What does this fold into?
Amino acid sequence: MSIIKVKNLSKEFHIRKREDGLVGAFKGMFSNEKIIKKAVNNISFEISKGEIIGYLGPNGAGKSTTIKMLSGILVPSSGLVEIKGLIPYENRIENARNLGVVFGQRTQLWWDIPISESFSLLRHMYKIPTTKYKKNIEMFSEILGISEFYNVAVRQLSLGQRMRADLCASLLHNPEILFLDEPTIGLDVVVKEKIRNFIKEINKSRKTTVILTTHDMEDIEKLASRVIVIDQGSMMYDGKLDRLKNIYGTEEVIEVEIESNIKNFDKLYKMGVKEINHKKNKILIKYNKEYINSATIIGWFMKQGKVNDFLVHGINIDEVIRKMYEKPMKNFM
Ligand SMILES: Nc1ncnc2c1ncn2[C@@H]1O[C@H](COP(=O)(O)OP(=O)(O)O)[C@@H](O)[C@H]1O
Ligand SMILES: [Mg+2]
It folds into this structure.
């Protein structure tokens, strides 16, 4: 049984034609010429209760526009959206009870009041019973550590604190579905990890269905087994992350920091490494996972001298999409 149904969904924006530069901008103010931007183009998918979906695509792909149509903020140009049998933009209030939404780029909280007061406003808006509310605050404090800034106004919070507060706020009314639009953008690793653990926990304990848009492949790796990829409004892929990685994500990069000065990398190239760049004691190694693995590479460096640090960069989503264009899969959906 699917909790979210999207069928042939499209959204067009009619934008006034604008030429480059100041004069162009000025002309554009009076021009009636419109261009049509297809932000979302004929997208279909269904999501079952309890799934975590990674909704991926480069900048401008149409991710936020999709999320806005799913939450009822935007009306589709054509096609159908159904959330638990409701059409979001026709049943905004009823739909909101089923939804928690977080936009990483802007807060849903009141700017000038402490988050504790924002929360209690939400509590009244959603008529959340006291016991449920208290239980939630307790659980969120534990995993996200919000108590340290519980009485601080949003405008005084750091980005990471604000994002944690926003995440709590979106879940106070125990929604069945959570939309997260770039929830980890601009955050440091520690906060990112907190947020990922929190999403995982909520999904496990409450069977909350999650759609997550992100640029961070690590978010996806840690949270989603199914991904939907869009580019320029159109759907490129819907399926298991593993399959996508097997087909396109064969190239990885390792960053190694060493103490000794290595000059000769011939052996590494012979072992199947594709590209090596080094700046001082930092070395970037690009390799194809089909030929050599990270452990072998790090092992080789450890034999050459002291390795201070290393970091394996996974596949990059923009790169995967670029490769999808170069070598499209047949019947990939
Ligand atoms: N309100 C709007 N008016 C005109 N164009 C828009 C509007 N919102 C988004 N777009 C355009 O639609 C495309 C998709 O945008 P968006 O959904 O924000 O992409 P993403 O979230 O994947 O980065 C972009 O080209 C963007 O410029
Ligand atoms: Mg966006």
Q: What stands out?
A: Residues 250-314 form a domain with the Alpha-Beta Plaits fold (CATH 3.30.70). The radius of gyration is 23 Å.
